[in-house]
Structure formats: C-alpha cells, structure tokens
Amino acid sequence: MGMRTIADHILDIYQNAVDSGASRINLEIKEMSGQLFSFKVTDNGKGISREKLSEVLDPFYTEKKKSKKFGLGLPLLKQAAESTGGVFELSSEAGRGTEVFATFILSNIDCQPIGDLVQTLVAVIQMSDDIEWVIYREKDGSGYEFSRTDFVRALGNDFSVNPVKIKLVREVIAGAEASL
Fold it and tell me: Histidine kinase domain: which residues (predicted)?
C-alpha cells in the first residue's frame, strides 16, 4: 500500500506518534477549499535527537524492528507536500516529542487527493485507545474539535473498541465533516 492520499499521510504520521510511546497526541487539520490543506501532528513521545533528524528523512532509515528495513512515511510526506509547492516541517527533541507539519497546494497538478477524512479520523481514534488525543479540524473558517475525554464522557471508556459505539463515533465525525 502506498501513500495515495493526504489522508494516508495523516494516518501514517499519527501511527508514528503512537509508536513513539506518546501519552498525548494533537492532530490539527486545516483546509481552504480548492486552495490549501495542512495538517500538524504533535506528540509527547520519545522524540528524535538532533543528530537523527536528517536521517529520518532518508527513505532507507528506520528504527522499527520489523522485517522491512526502511521507513518511507516522512520522506514520502515531504516529497508529496513540496511537489505541490507546499511546505514540510519536522521538529523534535529527544525525550520531549515531535511535531510534523505539512501544507499542500490543492490546485497544483501534483497534489494527491485529500481522501476519506472521516475513515481516517475513526482509525486514528481506534489506534490510540489509552492515549489522550485531541483532533481539531477547520475548513473555510468553520471547525470542530473532539478529544478522547469528550468521547469517554459521552460513550464510556470502551468507545473505541465497542462496534456499536464505533459506529456512533463514525456518525458524529461524518456529521461534523458534513457541517463544514
């Protein structure tokens, strides 16, 4: 599976934050219809040392202990954003966390489609069961914000694993997206 949409990049970078051992992750998504799309993932995970910051943008570098010996997420995101005339920024400090920011120029012929944000946000919620997360979404000046705490209060601690409650979460997010 490749990174075919911007939503795929969001999911990949969010998964990196989960894998970093973060206890808190913020996801911010902003869009100006037909013009700009940006997202920022900020976590308080293990972070990346100053020496390794440039290495993580090498497509053949990874710290993951898996059968694949390279990590393409950050390099592909950087290429995808910059190929549209957009921006990619990575900042991190060992032991303190990481922030990844990308902006895409939607009108650029090289821009990937945004993809299914509703499904992406539901997946983000499901993969971060014990992590305090906040999702902020803005489009053309309107927006919404959800947090793990909001869903726990409304649906209980099992909201991300109970099939009926996951369906409700999907409906809430779909409704919020449709209102933008």
Answer: 1-108
Do 27 and 140 form a contact (C-beta atoms < 8 A)? no
Q: Which domain holds residue 32?
A: 6-116+132-141
Dist. CA 87–CA 93, nearest whole Å: 20
pLDDT in tens, 44-101: 999 988 888 777 776 655 555 554 444 568 889 999 999 999 999 999 999 999 999 9
Would you say residue 175 lies in a domain? Answer: no
Answer whether residue 46 is part of any domain: yes
Calculated CA dihedral for residues 135, 28, 52, 3, nearest 10 degrees: 90
Assess if residue 81 is contained within a domain.
yes
Distance of CA 55 to the CA centre of its chain: 21
- On the 0-12 / 13-18 / 19+ scale of CB atoms within 10 A, 179 is exposed
How many domains are contained in the chain?
1
For residue 138, give the nearest of 48, 59, 63, 31 by alpha carbon: 31
Model pLDDT for residues 109-137, shown as the tens digit of each residue: 999 999 999 999 999 999 987 899 999 99
